Amino acid sequence: MATTTTTTPPWLEAAVPAPALRTTPPDPDVLGAVETALVRHRAFGDSDYIRGQLAVAYRRRLHKLGSTLPEAARLARLLDAAPAVRQRQLLGDTVLRCAVQHAMRQLHLGDDYGLPLPQCAALFQAAGTHLQSGLPGGPLTAHLPAMARLHVAPAHEQAESAAGAGENGADDTFSDTYAYNAPYNDTYIWHAWHQGTPYATAFLAVMEDNYGAPLATPTPRERALLRRGLRLLETLLPALAASALSHVQLIALFPKLGSWRGKASSSQFRVNGSVFLNQELIGNPWWLAEHLLHEALHQKLYDFRHGHSLLAPDYARDDGAKVYSLWNAPDDDGNHYWDAHRVFAAFHVYVHLALLCLQAERQEAALAPEYGCIGNNMSGSRRAIDRARYLGEQLLGTTWPELGLAGRQMTRWLLDVLDTIDTQPRPAGATLHLLLDLYERQSRKLDTFLARQPPPRDDTLQRQAEHELAAARAALRLLDREMPVPTPETEGLDMAQRWPQARQCVLTALWPLTHEETLLKRTGYPQAQALVTHMVQESSRQLAALGALGS
Fold this sequence. Notes:
By secondary structure, the protein is mainly alpha-helical. It is built from 20 helices and 6 strands. The strands form 2 sheets. Strands 1-2-4-3 form a 4-stranded mixed β-sheet, with helices on one face. Strands 5-6 form a two-stranded antiparallel ribbon. α3 (47-65) packs across α13 (285-307) and α18 (460-478) packs antiparallel against α20.
């Protein structure tokens, strides 16, 4: 019987410099003070204030719609008279927000967009009935089972897991025990039950328009995994977790199908109040804690945008400023170029994720017995800080004209926060480390790809290896440096070894340069930077053509 053995290529046995994921943290007291600032800043952090301003904006839109739709006028009057907490519950509803936005576009912009106007009117009517009936939460979640609440009492969660062989049995057992008073007790996990209700029908229509792919009803085990990740997030950043998740009404799991392929998590400004997580990835609590916070922070910023001048009115015009996200693979559709909104959203998230990662890394040893080690399941504090720094610099420069007054003030404030937690700041304008981060991650993907299948029979890998080595040598010469390791003799290597070995040599040669502040002052640095940028871009495109990057 034939056997197959796996050996480690000789060039991978040596230690190769790689982008650092962690940085030296500030004192724990500083981290605590930063968390407090992020949730208490009167305009940019206080969720009660942000959601209150959101309610004002949506009531104003309903009054405007009321001149044409009596159902909107009636709902606006009911909301005006309702307590603030009830306003926030109803106006946190994803479907109600969509109905308002779609009706506004159809009546005031003349767009044939979204839910039909008669359906919007019916949804306004149903929301008014929901409010008058005193039902909890919003209309979309009103018919979800009680066990679908994200936050439940620990004893109830354990009982559900024990009873979870049958969905109906678990629902019957716990329908009267889930009224657990948590900061985000209005956050639910999507279940595909009661689909015939007007709000569930509209939600699925919105999902079809925006994603065109199905959602999954979670198993008892998957609900338990979601709550496990939530507990870890609450342990690391209790105040920030409560603040961010108060902007999320619905968490939904998605399978690896259709447009969900290749996505880890997702949220959209057009589907406010809901976040989506990859069903296959929620098993690791560190990954889940980061992605829960990531998507919830997007929702918090979206809520802020509805009530404040985050962006200039015409920021989305065709010739609006774009920023190249250096750590993302370039593609023919230009998805690696981000408009002002996407830059700001990512900047906002990465500042917060830097704090999360710093706390996670600081507490990893204590939490590992319960949650395991972090491994590669979080972004890492150094990477999060580096990306936040780059995006903040781009907001101050490239996209500054596309920001509104509130957006400019928040940019400066978040950069002040970043300065507080970044104990080892890189020189202003440095980007080589971001390019090499992508290059190193894709090198690992290439190794995996070539380990699974034979390389191409032509000389593609050798030519690409020689091109990248030549680009690295040229960049080093511009900085008065030489290759610190011998150039591999690719002619003598097996076809599958040539390109991977060349990439390791490039990383070994270039990564130490990311720590030399004086190099940025060299006259040859801009040209060297351009050479490396072009090399990484072309390498990424070749990997994609080869099929090594996967879906």
